[in-house]
Structures are given as C-alpha cells and as structure tokens.
C-alpha cells in the first residue's frame, strides 16, 4: 500500500467517523471528499457505503443495551395492535430494515450506474442538489409540534424504513431523513435520534454486503487500506458520537445542508469548467 493509499484511508475513515452522526449525509460528504481526492465517482459511492461498517461498530457498542433489548424481544414479535414495549423495538428494526432493502437495493443499482456515467464535477453538483433536498425536509420538520410518542408503530416502521432506503443516494442524509419522519410523526427529538441510530446498524451492514457483492470484492481499495479506514472510522466514531449527538440537538442542520449543498453545486460547476 502506498503512502497515498494510507493517507486516503485515514482521511476517509476520519470523515466517516465524524459526519456519520450528523444529519448532513455521511455518504454524500465522504463521496465528495473521495471524488476530490481523485477517486472515480462510482467507486466513491461504493467506498462511502462500505466504510459505514466502521461507524456501525461504534453505534453497536454505544447502543449495546438497546440492541440486547431488541434481540430479547424478537421471539415475542406480534402484529401492529401489540406494538408495546420491547416488542415495538424488535418489530420496528425488522420491518423497517426490510423496507429499506426493498427501496434501497434498486436505488443503489441506479446510483452506481449513474455515477459511472457522470464526470466528477457533475457528480459533485448532483450531491449538492440532494443535500439541499435533505435540508428542505429538515427545515420543514422543525416547525412540527412535538408529541409524546416513543414506541414505533407499524406505520412508523414502514415509513422510516422506506425513507432510509432513499439514503442510498449520496447527498440524502440517512439520519436527517429518518429523524425528520419521526418528528413529523410526533416523536420527541431524543427518541427520534435514538431510534434512527438503532436502525442504522442493520442498514449499514446490509449496504456494505451489497457493495461487496456488486463490486466483486473491496471497491477500489486494498485489504490493508480497508482495515485502516474501517479502524479509523470506528475509533473516531465512538469517540465523537456522544458529543455530536448533543450538537445535533442545538444546531440547525438544515442550514448546514443548504450551505454544503450550495458549495457542492458551485464547486461541481467550477470543476466541470476547469476539467
């Protein structure tokens, strides 16, 4: 592995470890970084999805008690009218994850194919547009009156799972989209963030497996670089998750999405002109 490979792995792992917890699309921002570092857009999309495994390990460690609760409740899963307590969490994870696959797998195939046909500048601009869309949804969710809902229903699971599937597109924030849906469904922000992060674990693992299968192995990265990138993202992710979750509750991230989206659109146009 060359020094360049090592440097890219460290940068990619660090970016993933930080932005995964912010509702600004970790995949979109990491794809932007990788593209600017010279990575092919299609490979950048696949790498960004694959590196979510590192932060999945962080989330699994941080939410180990909630995961245990969900696993313990799986044998007792029942239909919607019995969505209570631990059963609600187990049912939510299973149903929402299934819906994510139904929506996300076709979109993944479409995204990788489209990215392979776009130049770097156009690809960056498209990510910018999707970041703006994420910002619009988050801005709208801030005006919703907060309720006392805490346990997800069948409708919540289906909606959140489908919306999470859209986040396979770089620029669509998984956490931003899912937490916004929960807010629209009258959840308090802390409950929305917790349920969103819990669902990220099976979603990220599924995305990584899909990436490996579709790419026929590690996409554009050596095994050594993959270990470095995943290790860095896991360590940085675990060290930052608590602090960044507190930041999320205080910062209007719709404005951050607008800013990053605008910069990406302008930057993509400049790159296209220069190239």
TrEMBL record:
Pfam families hit by this protein: BacA
Class of enzymatic activity (EC top level): hydrolase
Keywords: Cell membrane, Hydrolase, Membrane, Transmembrane, Transmembrane helix
InterPro entries xref list: UppP
Chief place of localization: membrane
Catalysed reaction equations from the record: di-trans,octa-cis-undecaprenyl diphosphate + H2O = di-trans,octa-cis-undecaprenyl phosphate + phosphate + H(+)
A GO term for molecular function: undecaprenyl-diphosphatase activity
Top-level taxon: Archaea
GO cellular component assignments: plasma membrane
Leader sequence residues: none
Membrane topology field: Multi-pass membrane protein
Transmembrane segments: 89-111, 118-139, 159-183, 195-215, 221-241, 253-274
Entry EC no(s): 3.6.1.27
Annotated compartments: Cell membrane
Keyword DNA-binding tagged: no
PANTHER family per the UniProt record, alphabetical: UNDECAPRENYL-DIPHOSPHATASE (PTHR30622)
Similarity section: Belongs to the UppP family.
Protein name in the entry: Undecaprenyl-diphosphatase
Species of the source: Halorubrum lipolyticum DSM 21995
High-level lineage: Archaea, Methanobacteriati, Methanobacteriota, Stenosarchaea group, Halobacteria
């Amino acid at each position: 592995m060359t020094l360049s490979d090592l440097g890219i792995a460290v940068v990619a792992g660090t970016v993933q470890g930080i932005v995964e917890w912010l509702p600004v699309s970790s995949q979109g921002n990491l794809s932007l970084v990788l593209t600017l570092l010279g990575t092919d857009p299609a490979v950048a999309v696949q790498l960004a999805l694959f590196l979510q495994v590192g932060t999945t390990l962080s989330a699994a460690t941080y939410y180990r008690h909630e995961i245990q609760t969900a696993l313990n409740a799986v044998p007792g899963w029942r239909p919607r009218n019995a969505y209570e307590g631990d059963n609600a969490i187990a049912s939510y994870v299973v149903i929402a994850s299934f819906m994510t696959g139904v929506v996300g797998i076709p979109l993944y195939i479409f995204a990788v194919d489209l990215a392979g046909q776009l130049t770097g500048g156009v690809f960056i601009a498209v990510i910018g547009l999707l970041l703006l869309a994420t910002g619009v949804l988050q801005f709208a969710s801030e005006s919703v009156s907060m309720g006392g809902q805490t346990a997800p229903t069948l409708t919540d699971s289906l909606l959140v799972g489908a919306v999470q599937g859209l986040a396979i597109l770089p620029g669509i924030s998984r956490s931003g989209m899912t937490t916004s849906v929960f807010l629209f469904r009258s959840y308090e922000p802390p409950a929305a963030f917790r349920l969103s992060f819990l669902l990220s674990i099976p979603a990220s693992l599924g995305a990584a497996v899909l990436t490996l299968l579709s790419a026929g192995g590690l996409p554009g990265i050596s095994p050594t670089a993959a270990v470095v990138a995943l290790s860095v993202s896991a360590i940085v992710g675990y060290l930052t998750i608590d602090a960044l979750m507190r930041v999320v509750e205080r910062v209007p991230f719709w404005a951050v999405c607008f800013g990053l989206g605008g910069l990406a659109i302008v930057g993509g146009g400049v790159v296209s002109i220069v190239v």
